[in-house]
Protein 1
Amino acid sequence: MTAYDLLIAPFADFAFMRRALTGSLVLAVGAAPVGVFLLLRRMSLMGDAMAHAILPGAAIGFLISGLDLFAMTVGGIGAGLLVAVLSGLVARTTVLREDATLATFYLISLALGVLIVSWKGSSVDLMHVLFGTVLALDDAALQFIALVSSATVLTLALVWRPLVIECVDSAFLRVVSGTGATVHLVFMVLVVLNLVAGFQALGTLLSVGIMMLPAASSRLWAREIGAMSVISLVIAVLSSAIGLLLSYHLNLPSGPAIILVAGGFYIVSLLAGPVGGVIPRSLPRAHRTA
Amino acid sequence: MSALESPRARPYSAAVTFTNATIGYDRHPAVHHVEGRFAPGSLTAVVGPNGAGKSTLLKAAVGALRPLGGKVSVEGCPRRRIAYLPQQSEIDRSFPIPVFDFVGMGLWRSVGLFGGFDRTADERIAGALATVGLAGFERRTLDTLSGGQVQRVLFARLLLQDSPLILLDEPFTAVDERTVEELLHLVTDWHAEGRTVVAVLHDREQVRHHFPQTLLIARHVIAWGETASVLTASNLRAARSMEEAWDDHAPVCSVDEVHA
């Protein structure tokens, strides 16, 4: 088997592989930096909670018009934004912190989603919603992913500075500018959009993986947020390509294959990452004078 | 945008006036019926036991807390321009941001959301870092600094904010003597430039040596004026005997009626 057969042929020969590759690469462009901010805001688990929260919306879309991506997307975005806004609002007006309010709302949302799916659909459909179909992306789905990624990159470019300040020193931002709450909300919208875009390709559960695993890995390679974003993007892109190839050659389900490759990158980073990785930390190195 | 673009407030003009102000949380006042003024160009230490309402007073001046009664007004400095240093706990020190970028926040008013950092901005940031004794720290990240260094970085940011009104909430806790001395020097410089400076402090010797004005509070104003006349034995005894009561069924305060 030549390198061509191994790396290029699957994509050259099959349109569905090309679509899958395009979809997951474009997805990575938006999801990677969003994941880095989630990580640095100590909201790594929030992506997971939001992924569950979008389920009832997708399920209602499914209920109304069957396995139609448009309906499920609109429903997912609606449910995600509702949970994000509600939990943010409750966190700012009551004694409950954001993690608590998010947990409560996403649990309600998830229960509702499971109820709706089991009421109308079969468990096969549920699996479909939860684990996605990267090998069956149609034009509309690809266009939606591209739209979300472009919007994410543009928006991040606009709110980068206040978003960073909000993360480091929100009290400062509150004094010098009234944009704190808005910036937070805009960021939450980006998280929801990227998760919904991801759930078509990877499913609700695994779309968090392509957001968080590369982000966590990047922290072990870089000290600054810009560099972290680039590294996490590279890892997400590599994971997508390698995962798809593995899924093709070894006949594995594609979504989990992509995430497991990202998981592999994470373990390698934990061991070898120059910023606090296990091996660099245990190497005897002469210290500097200052 | 108006707050950001308003004409630069001149030194000597910033003041905070409390008019029968009661400030607190959830109907329970932390400080009662404050009456007085941080005058333009004054340098005031705010002194009092824990729970006396010192931080609460500053938060009200910045506008982060609305008074439960009375009025807190700031003249000569738009609210958004106040340079406010809260107690350190609110900063995420684990965030991997370079010192340069963090100090650069101080230029928010001139750079704003999208403006670029030009050569002068670079020089001003480097200059501010040199002033606080951290020259060459630009590329270090915040998570690698010691407590005292972080405090110096925060002062560098205050320098760049170039505000006529500077409010410092316990700026010298957990900082070694040499650093305190250098930072105090900055504070007296600000005073000499005519800025209005208010600092919450605990070290009485520091206050006696460096702060002409003192406000002594213990949930209400005990004394406010020349430091020597405020920090007397009888005043301090009165402050120590403060009650730190939080009674859910405390009767509604009736001082207002007396005032009226």
Note: The longest strand of chain B covers residues 15-25.
Protein 2
Amino acid sequence: MSKHAITLIVNGDEYTLNVPANRTLLEALREDVGLTDAKYGCGTGECGACTVLVDGTRAINACLTLAVAMDGKEITTAAGLAMDGVLHPVQQAFADKAAVQCGYCTPGMVLKTISLLAQNANPTEQEIRKGLEGNICRCTGYAKIVDAVQQAARTMNAETPARRAAGGNA
Amino acid sequence: MSNETVIGKNVRKVDIVDKLTGAAQYAADLKMPGMLYGKIVRCWEHAHARVKKLDLSQAVKHPGVVKVLGPKDVTQKKYNASVLDLMVSESMHDMLGDIEDQPILGDYVKHQGDAICAIIAKSEEAAERAAEKVIVEYEPLPVYLTADESCKPGAVQFTPLKQGNRAFQLPEPMFPKHVLGWGDVDAAMKEADLVVEDEFYTPKQKQCQMEPHAYIAKYDANGNLTCWTSTQMPKCVQAKLSRLFEVPMNRMHIIQTTVGGGFGCRLGLVSEPQICALAMAVPGRPVKLLTLREEDWVISPSRHPGKYWMRMGFKKDGTPVFCDAYFRNYKGGYYLDASGVAFTAGAWLGGMYRFGALRYRGESYFTNQGITGAFRGYGNPQTNFVLEQIVDRACAQLGIDPVEWRRKWHKDVGDDGWCPGVPYTSCALDECLDKGAAAIGWKEKRAKYAHQTGVKQRGVGVAVMNHTSGAMPMLLEHTNCTVKLNEDATAIVTLACSDMGQGSHTALQQVAAEALGFPLEDVQLKGGDMDITGFDIGAHASRTLYVGGAAIKMACDEARKQLFARAAKHLGVTPDDLEMKNKVISVKNRPEKSVDVKTITRLGVYHFVDPMTGKPEGEPGQIVASVSYFPQRNSPPFGASYAEVEVDTETGEVKVLHLVNAHDIGRAIHPAAVEGQLEGGIQQGLGNVLTEEIYYDKDGHVRNNSFTDYKMYGPSDMPKITTILVENPDPFGPFGAKSVGESGLVSPIGAVANAIFHATGVQVTDAPITPEKLLKAIKGKQGARKAAA
């Protein structure tokens, strides 16, 4: 299989990779970049354990995405969310609500939540549930995850004006 | 209770930050220098066949291939993937008739996905491509998917050790006439005013743990075999692999990786024998083995499906004069756990109600379905679906409120629990029933939904359950714990338990901190490396907190005693005079006479003789306490579930509106984690009763081996959930705690089935209750009504 030189900006760092055309983004992240927080759960886009963000807020299944198609894109994984040891508000909310059990779906669930809240800053419970449909959790019954997303929405909405005032990115 | 500072609090779960940031390492995340990749070549074409020809010549030549292993290239010893045989004495082992019938690689295919040969290559892709070049010719055999088919005379025998393909029946010496129970059912039958009887089918459910099985193993020049695995039972796996490969325990190393969900499927061996065989074929090179989801589906055990017949007799006042039951479950092609579930389904039945007489028979039969074994609940979901529907059918005919009937007839403190001769030590089921009834609005809704017309009809239903905290005295429940106080007055607790996500490491650390009187952050729990930890049977039977917590408490109590004895000597008083606050030990009511814990621990480790006086400073020796613990009880938890459903009588679709799970868990060490178990249990229970089943075509091929075709409840499907923690401290549990790991999924099953019965007046005896089945039952009832009119 012919190889292609691509550049991925993963969690702010640039990686130049030489990948075969059939290499998925998930394989490229796990095997070539060496970041294992995006997980293989099904390989067919059903479980969402491989969810990553493209260009900050768009959630995609890395197992269904070819690495070559992501050439030049910014990719965010769960490992790139915490800043200087401070958890992202979504991670913080998951921690506060004990919304994590085995943890295998967790990185994907957190990233999907960020994407969801970027599209809809004040989702109803129903909208949250609908938004998380592509991410399977077998441990929690989703109850504490939904609680966590609601808390994250509140925190982020409260923080946004403050961040704006401070001149930061909303 | 009020003096406790750490337990009962929702402290931050100890593993949560690593899991949120992706730092937690699961087996598939590990990479090692010089690592090779393994691929198991499986039979996908047939569910029952003999290998006529195996040609590996093309695969060996494939670029990147290091070695190809056929069935004869690995040990010819067979194994039993379950660990039940390690948990019973040899005499009991003989009586149960457990057998070792699983080859590492084989030439007799007993289910789709059975392992034939294996590739070791320099890359995953090379291994996969080489696997495609293996040529296998099969001689197909008749496929048996049910016990009825496999037990027929003339059927191919799966093993010469089990005649008639009956893998197990309750053994005569322990269960006369192969019956578990009490009293004379035949005599009691004559006293019954009402007899309710039916045959049910309970489905084959998949655990669907999110982390597919993954391993690394390495065999070195000194004969050390190391396996990285996310097993639930690391010590048992160590013992089994040691025996299988004849590697002594001190060279058989198990490193437990983060467990991405278990629910029973990692209770014992899955592919550890295969990965270790691969590693031994290439000494010095670590070998990694990954599992595709569709592969995971067929290689790890699922819930035992089967036919479950039950007949119960009642007096007009509801007195249950007898219960007669027969569970005939379907194994896959191998024996593992054949004895366990056939027994426990009856044990939970016997533990539930005060039947005048009980006669339960349990049998397991080989079939060509995928293997069956442990799955959260272990026989309890099957019994709940059947028993709770039979009870409600009787209540409807007798005009008795189902809640009142259960309140009157459930077993209580002093009655025998699931194991005859081991009485219940605590029971707050009445409180669960009361609080649950209030939460669902039982009385109002039972009345309101009694007479409905229209397409959509609602109903409320109730079900109860008993479970266990560890499997003593039936199974070994031994655990070891060591507590070591460092010189800086922090503590390390070692225990070989598995946290599969249930939060046991957090709760156990809370128990340790509470018992030592230390802040939580000063205590660390270590498991993981089986060379460091003492023996522990593993995470099964909802026992980790109950047994592990009790062991930790004992060890910490002992460490604290040593600490106080030294402080007493230091202060010139007796230990009884002392108290500890903020890690300062002082004489009661005389806070000025005190010593810092750190002073004591430091003087024990850095022990010097004073050069001026020539006298030693403090007591020599690090404070370490170890216990080897065998629990004396199994303190069962109880649960009552209530469901409210809406049934579309034109489509048969069931919408669960509200599910209340009220549980008597003794004491909640970490309430949010306990709720999490009950909430997650509901998701799996709803699946069991409404949507989840592995389907096979007539040739034994799995028809739904993906999350698309196997329907689990998703976030939008989930009903409103109310969890109620009833705290009634058990005299034997650590700080009164009983278990909660498995039980949450059990009674939602009966509650939903009974709510459907309340809404529609029909019972579906075949689970899962899909719209097709329910619609057929509703139409059947309407047809019968019309015919009668």
Note: Residues 544-571 of chain B form the longest helix (28 residues).
Protein 3
Amino acid sequence: MLEIKDLKKNYGYFRALNGLTLTVGDGELFGFVGANGAGKTTTMKICVGLLKADSGQVIIDGVNTLDGGRKMRNKVGYVPDFFGVYENLTAMEYLTFFAGTYGIWGTKSNSLCEGLLELVNLSDKKDTQVDSLSRGMKQRLCLARALVHNPEILFLDEPASGLDPKARFELKEILKNLSGMGKTIIISSHILPELIEMCSTLGIISHGEMKFNGSVEDAMLLSKGKVSVEATFAGETEKALLLLKESPFVTSPEAVGNKITLGFNGTDDDAAGIIKNLVMHDIPLTGFTKKNENVENIFINIMEGNEGGTAENADANVQP
Amino acid sequence: MQMPTFNLKNAVLVKDMQVRAKRSNLPALLFIVNMVLSLVATIIMIVINARLVTYSNNSNDHLPWFFIGCIIAESALICLVIPIISSTTIASEREHQTLDVLLTTSMSPFDIVLGKYLSCIAYVAIMLLSTVPALSIASIYGSINFFQMFSILLVMMVMAMFLAAFGVHYSVSLKKSNHAVVMSFVMTGVLLGSTIILVMIAYGIINAIEASFELKYGYTGTPYVTPDPSIFLLYVNPMCTIFDAVGRIVGFKFVDDYSLHTTMSITGMKTVIAEVCPHLSLDNIFVRFWTLFSCITQLVLSWLLLKSAARRLDPSRAKIRHRRTKNAGKQS
């Protein structure tokens, strides 16, 4: 459905996209993750024809979007991260206007807009002024607006930002419904646990390059073997640090006061061996706690290029 | 859900008219315009009456001033209103963050620009039509028939279209609506004032050269270089068009009585040219049909300005800057 090849974009001296390559299949709900300024919005704007790329290709259902044109615009729906609404228009008039921009008028337009308002649970607000709607309702109305021409692919830029948990839940349910209807949806967001729960595939972007492009399961496999340990001592911390550095299962140990934090990639038996070794050398160990990496840390590691791929994630497209 | 079909209506125009109809701006504008016109007409009527009482002149010589005053006042109001409403069109969409969404629809940038432009024109058309009752009274007193009155309204409409095209163009070019409003007023001033100044400068320079040749060689025949073609720069001055149209309606006898042979004469450009361009034939078709050709020029320029605005608005036509980036070396 969507194929991005070697996309490059500079803003003056700042390189926003540096050869971004990405593939999204038909009917996928794709989560687009990245830090602020990573290039998510730029990528989306290029895909919907709002920005011109310096080089590369964006192919949506066989049409190169970089050529622009009405044919491309009929294939995509876009919900920007920040958007305004028109004053003095009701929700129904707002949708009718956008239906008109696609040449849909009259009774066709009315029935279409009523159907869309029902889809986004805003039927009871059809005669309400758009500027008096809540942020969550405006977001849902904007989503309905993006669906007015029945696009094949939807680009949603941070759709859940600024929404309360209830509005976020409602939006998530609508997106799941749309995905069930066979729409290809690309969502950028910072709320990673929600993306993992909702999306079938993920893309992680950093400094204008894709660091990961694969299924959510592949992304989760990256957490295997990623354990951090916090060891506390009553004294002899420097001696303990030297001993820990000798262990093949320990990575980057760091001492702060009586505490040492380290990366651990061994088994429980290996952990027991390390503790036994410390005790044998008369080091007063008072605590040894293992902590699994959370999802956000894994993404941060991938974005920073510290992913350290394992055999299990060989299928995922991890790009160092 | 339906697949899109060919656009017959302009959705932006329909929406803008819908929004404008709900606002109180339009009735307020109509009230102000008609109030100003009535005030001007009253003042002129008082002055004419005073002159009639003082000099006991024939009223037919004075009454056309009633019509002329109203037309000048209405033209001045157009020059004030048009830059404000036209230059906020696209810029306000940008400020309200609705432009990006509009550009992703199947409407082309030209359709968007045209919709915005036509909504301004419709606004001015309503304004002009609302002044018909006031102008009718002025026409009756000034012995102007309805056809002549509507022809003047048509010329004022062309003037509004020309100035609105500049407003829309600046609305696209500049990011903030207040900057666009200022630039539109500046451009209106340039069109109305600078064109005349440029023509005068051209005459001054060429006449000075001619005079020096006469002194040196004693030649006093038809000059080799004449500044006459520069008068056609005034084709883009909407006030010249209005004055020419008014002058042709009130007639040259009226002119002779008042001796208004100045550059900005209300007696028609033909009279101005006779004064300023003695070498230019007054039977020249471009002089005889000054109003018509001036209107055509302004409409063509308006169309080109709208095309240029649409080109600027189109993201796919944005210029690509092939610069060497600072981090290019590091990342490649």
Note: Chain A has a mean pLDDT of 81.
Protein 4
Amino acid sequence: MSQQLFTNLAIFILSLLVGFEVMSKIPATLQTPMMSGANAIHGVVVVGAFVIAAEANNVALYILAFLCAFFAAVNVAGGYTLTDRMLHMFDRPKASKNDDGGDK
Amino acid sequence: MMSTLQTAASLVYLISAICYVLGVHLMRSPKSARNGNLLSGAGMLLAVIMVTIELIVQGKITAMGWLVLIAGLVLGVLYGVIKARRVEMTAVPQLVSLFNAVGGGAAAAIGIFDYFHMPTGSSLSLVFSIPVLLDIVIGGTTFSGSLIAMGKLAGKISGKPISFPGARICNFIVIIAMVVGAVLIIGFPVTPWYLGLVLLASLIFGLLMTLPIGGADMPVVVSLLNAFTGLAVAFAGFVINNQVLIIAGALVGAAGTILTLQMAEAMHRSVANIIVGGFGAGATGK
């Protein structure tokens, strides 16, 4: 196994564990915003769109790079805007009585 | 110069990864949720600025490359922001599903790109072909699956479980096609058709997975597909050797899975029951 693959695999597995750990029981009202927020985070794929656009050198690859950039931009820009809009609704009414601790 | 740039980039990506983790952490409580989302958004902005600097300094990208990149980004940002601003609050789940579909599509596009980028006839290493396969299979499945989920939530596709005679045989054929395509990709020199077979099978698999599930269960399915997209993005990170994709993708994959379980629990359903119920005999206990 190459050094690079091993490093990436270690990062992958440790990040999975962080993901499992950071997500404790969350109040039901926050489930949809959290889903949308997590959705926005995988919009990081937009970084990949930059990387492949730099490699493109024929028509098919340019089309793929364009599609990737478009899709990823919709994901990331829409995702954060929508999540913020949803969470904005928690600002105005007094925050619900759900405890904010979260960590058990 | 090159190595200074790489060091700087790695550090900036690390900081943005920390922003995502802290962002998710803050989003668990109503009081801090908005700041959590903003922090994660700041991390995203940082990553995008860094990769832009990388492209400029490396100077490898062609003018056409800039053109397609910027055109795609501008159109995508406009479309995404307008959709997100205008959507009725009751229609939020289907929009999340749409954003999830395009995320999966973008991840799959990276895998397809890298496969086509290889000279035809050259053979692939396992280290390269397996992440490419996982990226395309998971990305393709969530792309079509999320679009169906969106249609069902929006009422454009009947919310009833859609099943047809021979559905199980179709599932079987699709899975066989996927496995055959995967073996061809791993074991044989690069040929575009192999990839086409796997991609097509993945897209059909997404349809077959989502169609038999009832509309009421859709939010759970969207959350599950969201976790899948996270994994597809992580594998795209393996393909292009970019750690911020791996970290953020795996984070969403894991956190999304836990969230899915909690959402199913809130509905007094089990995830296995929802997914396999649709797939299996058809007579789901409802």
Note: Chain A has a mean pLDDT of 87.
